[in-house]
Amino acid sequence: MAELLGFPPQVLFGQLLIGLINGSFYALLSLGLAIIFGLLNIINFAHGAQYMLGAFVAWLGLKFLGVNYWAALVLAPVVVAAIGIVIEKTMLRRLYKEDHLYGLLLTFGLALIIEGSFTHFFGVSGQPYSVPAALSGGNNLGFMFLPTYRAWIIVASLIICFGTWYMIERTKLGAYLRAGTENPQLLQAFGINVPLLITLTYGYGVALAAFAGVLAAPIYSVSPVMGSNLLIVVFAVVVIGGMGSIAGAIVTGLLMGLIEGLTKVFYPEASTTVIFLVMIIVLLIRPAGLFGKEA
Amino acid sequence: MSEQKRDVEQLRVSDLHAFYGESHILHGIDMKVNRGELVTLLGRNGSGRSTTLKSIMNMVGKRTGSIMVNGNETVGMPAHQIAHLGVGFCPEERGIFSSLNVEENLMLPPTVRSGGMSLDEIYEMFPNLYERRMSPGTRLSGGEQQMLAMARILRTGANLLLLDEITEGLAPVIVQTLGEVLLKLKAKGLTIVLVEQNFRFAAPLADRHYLMEHGSIVEEIASHELEEKMDLLNTYLGV
Ligand SMILES: Nc1ncnc2c1ncn2[C@@H]1O[C@H](COP(=O)(O)OP(=O)(O)OP(=O)(O)O)[C@@H](O)[C@H]1O
Ligand SMILES: [Mg+2]
After folding, report:
1. How many angstroms separate the alpha carbon of residue A145 from the centre of ligand 2?
2. What is the gyration radius of the CA atoms in chain B, in angstroms?
3. B227 pLDDT exceeds 90?
4. Is residue B183, in this structure, part of any structural domain at all?
5. Contact status of A266 with chain B (Cβ, < 8 Å)
6. Residue from B51, B108, B111 to probe the interface with A (highest A Cβ count within 10 Å)
7. Radius of gyration of the CA atoms of chain A, in A
8. Mean of pLDDT values over B210-233
9. Best-predicted range by mean pLDDT among A85-94, A131-140, B117-126?
10. How many CB atoms lie under 10 A from the CB of residue B2?
């Protein structure tokens, strides 16, 4: 095939694929953050640590208990969500009436403690986790080579994101969640157990992070700092998309991954900063974010 | 309805004190509403009528005293259990959810007793809601939102309705419709506590009136005493 815009198609599509994969992680993580912020009013700074915990539970499970990848994909989110639920019930619960800042500080502190302890025990160098046999190898699409595991990441992330969107926007449970985000006191007066709804929502948001962590384990090394690096970018994505919108979090996540990938092709020097540049521009033009409701 | 059945106590409030943070708003409310009765809370702005209803729903900062609903003490109960005793609440600010469409708003409160109205019956009673059922709740006109706020608790089968200023800002014909709705509900044996600014609306519907002032009940007036106590009402309400 001829060159595209002066670049070999292999390079262009290769970077777009990487962008889409990064975007899949951004989408999963910012979706969880948006759900948690909506109902709990808390900016969950522990999200990166919970993503890392997901990867570590998968790695530890494989190493010590022989839990395979597919089982880990279900079990790790459940285990990490259970830890999240304990955190919500014992700590976060006390902060809902306070300013956002307190929740942010508490979860930030938790992230430092969790990441610090894992660094102490496992070091920062990172542990390998191999791609499951069923997803190894790849296909030559003619214009590029597509590794099967990478395609799986995109598909799995899209399924979970769409499923979550559907649940929130189209089901009765989602109606409770939306109503609780708007006016929890009235929802509770109608007879809904709002404290339980809040606990489960936090658990679900955390489970999404852990799921992303398991997806990431075979392509990035499993390391205690894997989440903190990613989280900064994800926060920028959340700011760009606007806190309020579920669909917005998903679309912005994918879009920012693609923009990052394209930048790598055309101007590699800016590829790590381009998202922050977009963030600044969006903040100047539309402070509530691309999909946020203007106050 | 027989005299005997009328004396079933649906709501009894004794020595109720309510607080928002540090401010002490209700100072020892006592009231009793029997099954099938329609009772109003009258008073000036700020006299504590909405706070009384919100206290019954456990939506204030703190409350002390006793609130018996259908024979159950509710002062120590979490807010979400109170509705399940058969209570439906229509708040003063209507509380329509903007991220839910009309039908989702309508279906939101869980059924708390059998015998509530079906969706079809509700759409028959409020045809406007049927036409707009797919639009976001807060796109409705003020009157339509008020109908929605009423309709959504009629669906739940609640037999004790706490209604806060349901006629506020509505056109006379809608007010008249609401009056007819209340009469129908009363005929079905529902118990209603009505907070109302519009005395002309409330007077012909009610069995009794409680008059509130500065967070206390200062007078109880049965509907047959209205004529003779008109002067008293005028002093308190300035009607
Ligand atoms: N959320 C709140 N925090 C603090 N004080 C409140 C709050 N809500 C009401 N109050 C105070 O409680 C008192 C009673 O208010 P309430 O809303 O019960 O009055 P009302 O009789 O319903 O009057 P209105 O006609 O204005 O609806 C008022 O003095 C008001 O300032
Ligand atoms: Mg009021």
Report:
1. 67
2. 17
3. no
4. no
5. no
6. B108
7. 19
8. 91
9. A85-94
10. 6
pTM, entire model: 0.92
Predicted confidence band of residue A294 (pLDDT cuts 50, 70, 90): low
| Rounded CA separation A163/A87 (Å) | 26
B154 domain-assigned: no
Give the angle A40-A223-A108 at the CA atoms, nearest 5°: 30
pLDDT class for B1, splitting at 50, 70, 90? very low
Q: How many domains in chain B? A: 1
CATH number at residue B42: 3.40.50.300
Q: Give the C-alpha separation, A245 to B210, whole Å.
A: 46
How far is B103 from B31, CA to CA, in rounded Å?
35
Q: Do A190 and B108 contact (CB within 8 A), yes or no?
A: yes
- Residue B32 in any domain: the answer is yes
Q: Output the CA torsion A274→A276→A281→A282 (10° steps).
A: 110
- What strands lie across the sheet with B72-73, from one edge to the other? B23-34, B9-20, B62-69, B72-73
> Mean of the pLDDT values across residues A191-209?
97
Average pLDDT, chain B: 92
**In the A/B pair of chains, how many CB contacts fall below 8 A?**
60
- Phi/psi region, residue A236 (left: phi>0; alpha: psi -120 to 50; beta: rest), is alpha
As a whole number of angstroms, the distance between CA A171 and CA A149 comes to 32
Q: Is residue B19 part of a domain?
A: yes
Provide the residue range defining the domain that includes B32. Answer: 1-86+201-239
- Average pLDDT over every residue of A15-32: 94
**What's the pLDDT score for residue B3?**
46
List, for residues A88-97, the tens digit of each pLDDT value: 999 999 998 8
Contacts of B145 in chain A (CB under 8 A): none
Confidence of residue A4 (pLDDT cuts 50, 70, 90): low
- A189 lies within 8 A of chain B by CB: yes
Q: In testing the pocket of ligand 1, which one of B16, B20, B59, B63 has its CB within 8 Å of the most ligand atoms?
A: B20
Please give the share of chain B, as a percent, with pLDDT higher than 90: 77
> B203: buried, middle or exposed (CB in 10 Å: 19+, 13-18, 0-12)?
middle
- Domain range list for chain A: 13-101+145-285
